[in-house]
Amino acid sequence: MQYIEIDTKVKLIHGFSNKTRLQILECIKDKEKTVSQIVEEINGNQSNISQHLACLKGCGIIVGRNEGKYCFYSLRNQHIRDLLAMFDVVLNDVQNDVACCDRHVY
Predict the structure, then answer these.
(1) What distance in Å separates the CA atoms of residue 67 and residue 74, rounded to the nearest whole number?
(2) Which of 12, 53, 54, 65 is the most buried (most CB within 10 A)?
């Protein structure tokens, strides 16, 4: 496996480091959706969701597929889906510590 620069890893992890972006990822992890469907499901506003989608797409975490006037967003691949599942596995082990962590500002 090739060496990956730490700054590149930071950029990828940044894509997962926001509540709205995580909500979007959870929303589309099983089925592709349009911006309107995502906005409705996570109760956000379109401008904000579009900005977060651009971030996720720029980080290579999601892809968009155009069909007519709609763009359908989905996770890039199974590896991203597996990573989201792994977050849940790890959190099952450390959730009490994470809940008590007051060093992070959201």
Answers:
(1) 13
(2) 53
